[in-house]
């Protein structure tokens, strides 16, 4: 199987990650729940993972809240901010958000917790995106939530610039970095008051890992979404006031976070240039292939940097049919709407969806050429 679905989860996981998980399953007890060695081993697994995340994203270890994925992190962050306010919150969101943001916003709107303005992103002009964002701010705006890069077409949005504007206006920013964590160098303070990320995509950690990272400059309050045991202050019926325990109720998956720690240690030795080389090759070939429509990609006069995701449709195929056809040829891609209704609405692909080709560190030029040969053969019939 040639795997081109890294935007869903990074594959394969390294032997180092697999071994770290297996070792922790043998030797880690429940973190924070005992004074014996097995419990201490669990403590160390979490401590090491937090420190590695802190180094990777320029944060304090105690501000690295461990979650099971980006979705959980976004729920903790967005609902935590909104529930800490007595009055409805005015929120700015983008028109490219993943459902991990959109469904939170929809639910909060229905319960009259928030009022929302959607600002328009421009696929080819970042200045317009920034201007549209700034023009959408009102005196009541207190929160902005947006994605760093589209999981549908790979477009990277000007988050740093929007973050600066929001910061100058006292607006809290929560950023979904699900598609850029592990690909771009990201400092938490530059990209949001809170950044939310997965461990299993381009960081190549185990499934069921993620983090909500609070920047050192954030002085706001977050209401805890989850309530339960934390291993400390057990006589107090309120959740602890300080991170990370305030947001980590219940037992944590120490083996999975041991695996994420191993993945973060390996990250610096990875060649980041190859996926972009493959991306450029595939993009050029697909744009010139009969029967293939490339959607939302940069044009020849605007070869800007994107995360390595390409969205296509094949003439005569629904996107899911095309993905199934490629699966029979041992090519793994994803067809459909990719949990991103708003992005597909923006791109004009709500009816057809799209075939997403997402490139990762396990891919080679041999894989790319095999994909092109198969598509060329299918579309020439």
Present the secondary structure layout:
Blueprint lengths: L1 E2 L11 H13 L9 H21 L6 E4 L2 H14 L5 E6 L4 H12 L3 E6 L6 H11 L4 E7 L11 H10 L3 E5 L11 H4 L2 E5 L11 E5 L39 H13 L6 H15 L4 E4 L13 E6 L4 H10 L2 E2 L1 E3 L4 H7 L6 E5 L6 H15 L2
Parallel strand pairs: 1-11, 3-4, 3-5, 5-6, 6-7
Antiparallel strand pairs: 2-8, 7-8, 9-10, 10-13, 12-13
Classify the helix fraction into a percent range.
25-40%
- The proportion of strand residues reads 15-25%
- Quaternary status: single chain
Distance between the termini: 24 Å
* Number of self-contained structural domains: 2
Radius of gyration: 21 Å
In this structure, how is the largest beta sheet organized?
7 strands, mixed
Just name the CATH architecture of the largest domain.
3-Layer(aba) Sandwich
Overall pLDDT: 94
Helix-strand string:
EHHEHEHEHEHEHEEHHEEHEEHEH
CATH topology title of the largest domain: Aspartate Aminotransferase, domain 2
Determine the structural class based on helices, strands and strand pairing. Answer: alpha/beta
In a few lines, what is going on in this structure?
With 381 residues, the chain is of the alpha/beta class. Helix content is 38%, strand content 16%. Helix 2 (37-57) packs across helix 8 (254-266) and helix 9 (273-287) packs parallel to helix 12 (365-379).
Mind explaining what this structure looks like?
The protein has 381 residues and is α/β, with parallel strands linked by helices. The protein has 2 domains: 2-9 and 272-379, Aspartate Aminotransferase, domain 1, CATH 3.90.1150.10; 15-268, Aspartate Aminotransferase, domain 2. The protein is 38% helix and 16% strand. It has 12 helices and 13 strands. The chain has helices at 15-27, 37-57, 70-83, 99-110, 126-136, 159-168, 188-191, 254-266, 273-287, 319-328, 341-347, 365-379, and strands spanning 2-3, 64-67, 89-94, 114-119, 141-147, 172-176, 194-198, 210-214, 292-295, 309-314, 331-332, 334-336, 354-358. The strands form 3 sheets. A 7-stranded mixed β-sheet has the order 2-8-7-6-5-3-4, with helices on both faces. Strand 6 (172-176), helix 7 and strand 7 form a beta-alpha-beta unit. Helix 1 (15-27) packs antiparallel against helix 8 (254-266), helix 2 (37-57) crosses helix 8 (254-266) and helix 3 (70-83) runs parallel beside helix 4 (99-110). The longest helix has 21 residues, at 37-57. It starts with a strand and ends with a helix. The model has no long low-confidence stretch (mean pLDDT 94).
């Amino acid at each position: 199987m040639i795997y081109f679905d890294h935007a869903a989860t990074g594959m394969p996981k390294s032997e180092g990650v697999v071994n770290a998980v297996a070792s922790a399953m043998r030797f880690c007890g429940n973190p924070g729940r005992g004074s014996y060695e097995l419990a201490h081993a669990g403590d160390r697994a979490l401590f090491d993972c937090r420190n590695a995340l802190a180094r990777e994203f320029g944060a304090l270890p105690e501000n690295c809240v461990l979650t099971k994925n980006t979705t959980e992190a976004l729920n903790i962050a967005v609902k935590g901010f909104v529930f800490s306010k007595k009055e409805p919150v005015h929120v700015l969101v983008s028109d490219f958000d993943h459902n991990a943001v959109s469904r939170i916003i929809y639910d909060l709107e229905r319960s009259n917790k928030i009022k929302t303005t959607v600002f328009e992103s421009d696929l080819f002009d970042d200045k317009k995106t920034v201007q549209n964002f700034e023009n959408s701010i009102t005196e009541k705006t207190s929160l902005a939530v947006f994605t760093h890069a589209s999981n549908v077409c790979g477009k990277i949005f000007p988050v740093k610039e929007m973050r600066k504007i929001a910061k100058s206006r006292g607006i809290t920013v929560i950023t979904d970095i699900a598609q850029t964590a592990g690909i771009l160098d990201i400092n938490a303070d530059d990209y949001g008051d809170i950044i939310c990320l997965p461990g299993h995509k381009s960081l190549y950690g185990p499934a069921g890992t993620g983090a909500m990272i609070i920047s050192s400059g954030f002085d706001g309050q977050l209401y805890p979404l989850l309530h339960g045991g934390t291993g400390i202050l057990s006589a107090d019926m309120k959740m602890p006031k300080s991170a990370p325990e305030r947001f980590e109720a219940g037992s944590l998956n120490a083996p999975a976070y041991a695996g994420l720690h191993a993945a973060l240690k390996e990250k610096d030795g990875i060649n980041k240039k190859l996926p972009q080389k493959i991306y450029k090759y595939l993009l050029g070939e697909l744009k010139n292939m009969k029967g293939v429509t490339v959607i939302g990609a940069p044009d020849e006069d605007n070869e800007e940097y994107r995360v390595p995701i390409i969205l296509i449709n094949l003439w005569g195929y629904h996107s899911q049919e095309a993905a199934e056809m490629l699966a029979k040829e041992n090519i793994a891609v994803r067809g459909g709407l990719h949990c991103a209704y708003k992005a597909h609405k923006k791109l004009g692909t709500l009816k057809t969806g799209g075939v997403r080709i997402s490139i990762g560190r396990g891919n080679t030029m041999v894989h790319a050429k095999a994909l092109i040969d198969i598509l060329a053969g299918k579309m020439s019939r």
